[in-house]
């Protein structure tokens, strides 16, 4: 019986560093480093850094 293969793409959650609890979900490759992006946080009405967190 063959072993199951792992998915190459992960669905990850990017959490706002402003502490508002707002998050985006995105996809990334399994072999890539953790994501960190500047995106818009509508709670504080400005662009802030969003970092990848565990689900």
UniProtKB/TrEMBL annotation:
Main location: mitochondrion
NCBIfam families: rpmG_bact
The family this protein is said to belong to: Belongs to the bacterial ribosomal protein bL33 family.
Keywords of this entry: Mitochondrion, Ribonucleoprotein, Ribosomal protein
Pfam families with a match to the protein in the record: Ribosomal_L33 (PF00471)
GO cellular component: mitochondrion; ribonucleoprotein complex; ribosome
Keyword Ribosomal protein: yes
Organism placement in taxonomy: Eukaryota, Fungi, Dikarya, Basidiomycota, Ustilaginomycotina
Protein known as: Large ribosomal subunit protein bL33m
GO biological process terms on file: translation
Database matches in InterPro entries: Mitoribosomal_protein_bL33, Ribosomal_bL33, Ribosomal_bL33_sf, Ribosomal_zn-bd
MF GO annotations: structural constituent of ribosome
Organism: Ceraceosorus bombacis
UniProt keyword Transport present: no
Subcellular location: Mitochondrion
